[in-house]
Every structure is written in C-alpha cells, then in structure tokens.
What we know:
Shape: elongated
Strand content: 5-15%
Mean pLDDT: 81
Order of helices and strands: HHEHEHEHEHEHHHHHHHH
Helix content: 55-70%
Strand order of the largest sheet: 2-1-3-4-5
Largest sheet: 5 strands, mixed
Low-confidence stretches: none
Number of helices: 14
Number of strands: 5
Amino acid sequence: MSFVRKEFSHVLRDRRTLLILFGMPLVQILIFGFALTNEVKDSKIVVVDYARDDASQAIISKFEASHYFEIEKSAMSHDDIEKSFKQGKIKMAIVFPANFNEDLLHQNKGQLQIIADASDPNTANTITNYASSIIRDYQSQLDMTTSVPYQITTKTKMLYNPQLAGAPNFVPGVMALVLMLVCVMMTAVSIVKEKETGTMEVLLVSPFKPILVIFSKAVPYLLLSLINVASILLLSVFVLDLPVNGSVFLLFAESILFIITCLTLGIFISIKTSSQQVAMLISLMGMMLPTILFSGFMFPIENMPKVLQVITNIVPSKWYYIIVKSIMIKGLGFSFIWKETLILLAITLFFLVVSLKSFKIRLS
C-alpha cells in the first residue's frame, strides 16, 4: 500500500502524466465525435440555369433548402464552371438546358447535367448521389399530379478522375504524410541526440558559427526527402497509372518548400526538447495526427465545426496537399496556388525566426 500511495503521488504531481491520462481521451472524443465524419454537408456548388423556368427554379430551391449543399453563385457559362473548379471553390455544378420545363410538359422527360470534382472520389460520389436523390424527389412530386410518369435523367461528368480511382486522392496525402514525418522527426531526433550524448557542446565550440550546426543537420534530410518525392512520383506514374498533369518542376519546387517547412518544425522541436523520446513523441503525435485529421486527406474539412476549420489553417500539410492535388491531378499552374505557397512560406519563416531566437549557444 505504501508503494501504491507513492505511485499515486508521482502521478498526481506530474502534470504531463495527468494531461495524457485525462486530457488526451477528452480531446480525442471531441475530435472524433464532432470533427471526423464521412457525411458530406454544406458542399459548395454552382448552378448554370439556361432554362430559367418553373421546373429548374423548383429544383434549385430544393438544393438551397438541403443542408447537404450551399449554392456559391449562379454561373452563366461552362467557362465560369471550369474557373470555379480550378480555384477549388466548388465541389459540384448543375447545368439546366434550355427548354427544360417544356421538355417535361410535352415529352414527359427532361435531362440535366451534374459535374463533380472527382479528385476526391469519395466526396464526388457522395454528393452526386445526394443530388440525384433530390432530383428523384422532385420527379416523384410531379408523378403525383399526372397519370403519365415523368422522367428526369441526369448526365454525370467526373472531372480530373473519370474512373473514380483512389490513387488521385491518397497519393498527395501520402506525400504530405511521409515528408512531414521523415523531415520533422528525423531532424528533431538527430539534434537532440547530440545534446544527450554531450557532443553538442563540442560542436558549439567548433570554429564555424553554431547556427551552421543546425543547418548542416537539416541539409541531408532535405536531399533524402527529395529522393522520397521522386520515388513516390515514379511509383504513382508507372505502377498506379497516375500521371503528373502539371509541371514536374513546379511540383518539385513546392515540395522543396514544404520540406524546408517541415525541417524548421523539426529544428523548433529539437530546441525546445531535451530528450530523444520527447522529441519523437511530439513529432509523431503532433505531426502525424494533424496531417491525417486536418489536412483534408481523410476527412472533408468543410464538415468540421468552424473552430476546427480555423485550426486546420495552421497545419502545413493541408496547404501542401492542396498544392499537390492542384498540380498533379488538375494540371494547374502557379497562378492557382500562389496563396497556398505564400502561407507555407510564412509558416516556414515564423518557425525559423522563433527557432533562431530560442537557440542557445550555451547548454545548461
């Protein structure tokens, strides 16, 4: 009983242990209960209504009333639709042809088009099913008013991924996850290892500037991570049949920026920690989980509560995931990803400045 009381005292006095015991389960329940869901809602869509008649307006009203969709704007042409998809502002577009209502009244059949962004095949498949359900509901209401059944057919077009393959979604996510884990964890552990073994003091009194010690630790992981990027791209092209539709040079340039971002995170963790175990735990838990949960790789960000949507903006892998999908899957250029690039650059500069300010040339 004395040892039991002693152990209780140790646990209750250690705030970090209490945080792991009671704080982590609460956080996980909140995240998995409220943020992580495969249900798709509030998906942004646009409508091109060439008909502008009673039938098209009635169907549009049903979409507006549904919590699954949020009509961003009413586009006037297919060019507007293409531009909105490239900017990543919408998930789906609905096109009503001219004389839609007249075709229903005189021929008892009508046709409309659904265009979805299939770079995320799961979301595209889900929202097209939701849209088809709403259209079928309107058709059943019309059937109740006449003895001759109406027929509304939908022509579905999947952009960027017509086969609804899974590779266009998970390859960018795996790239973000691999680079984040390798760069952050290996950099953090390698520098802390010098502290634990006592060799950091020798390095700090060497002829060259102490800050160069940090950069020299990061450079090898930059080069090795570029090999990782190249190997992932080769596998995706030649094994998974997923070509790079955009500029390979731009993709590598953005990857270098993201790798540097991850390296600065690793340097920051290494400066703030004093043991390899702590550095590894922070790198794994602090980097892997946000990449999986908050990058949009596994779960749609727009389904999360507003507070968590704001938090996702500070996760670097979210912006890299968007950049890779834009270049690799959609074939877009720098003009469509410059905002994400600036955000990654700002995160990199922030952690670099904070790390340099926190770096001590004397070990206590």
